[in-house]
Amino acid sequence: MIRLKKILKEGKTIIVPIDHPIEGYFRELEEPRRIVQEIIDGGADGVLLRRGSLAKTYDLVAGRLAIVYRISGATFTSGDMGDQRLTSSVEESVRYDADAIAYTVYVAHPKENDMYEVFSRLVEEAEYYGLPVIGEVLVWENAKVDAFEYLRIGVRTLGEEGAAIVKSGFPSDFSLYRDLVRYSIVPVIAAGGPKMDSPRKVLEFVKAVMDAGAVGTCIGRNVWQQESPSKMIRAMKRIVRGGASVDEAMSELL
Ligand SMILES: O=C[C@H](O)COP(=O)(O)O
């Protein structure tokens, strides 16, 4: 699969998502071109984005970053981020030259099975075009469940249903993350989350997920909410691609 190789170069990847505006107001995303240029300068492998930001930045992205086209979403203002709907199609993704599509399933949500059904249909359709599907699994925030077990089952289910890569959230007990990755039958990349206390914490997190067997990261806010997103990406790359220590990677932030 040529498209997948553009994303998983030598088996590792750094994808930076900027698909957030549906989920709230983010000052840093006021100028998508500025952030995309930072992502390119940092040397990331791909950018994950929606229709509007892609249209605004296509000339920058083309030939420089793999396009991971986000085709699911739920608005923050709807009050239920877990109620993911399809926002595009395989056909449009191919027309936009996407290298992969990304779809999210919220496990423990009352509509979980509907989301899996849509996911499976997308895989079936995307396979025809050689378009990899990245499945994301998150636990619905209103569910009172054992997040680890739900994530582990979700990660495996997405792989069983044909995800090329699974992007996963984390159990609160991080030591269980390795077990979650081990149960997956496809490569796992780490989701990010709200901004951490310091750049070092971000790099410690990247180191921990790589040590636990992830093949890369799909981290947004903790990249583009830094003073220099491109430097942060370079530091992350030292760990993801070079196996550097956190201290070594920190030198990129000076
Ligand atoms: O698709 C990815 C999400 O928008 C998460 O990004 P984040 O690292 O800011 O949580």
UniProtKB/TrEMBL annotation:
InterPro entries per the UniProt record, alphabetical: Aldolase_TIM, DeoC/FbaB/LacD_aldolase, DeoC/FbaB_aldolase, FbaB-like
MF terms (GO), sorted A to Z: fructose-bisphosphate aldolase activity
Family: Belongs to the DeoC/FbaB aldolase family.
Protein name listed in UniProt: Fructose-bisphosphate aldolase
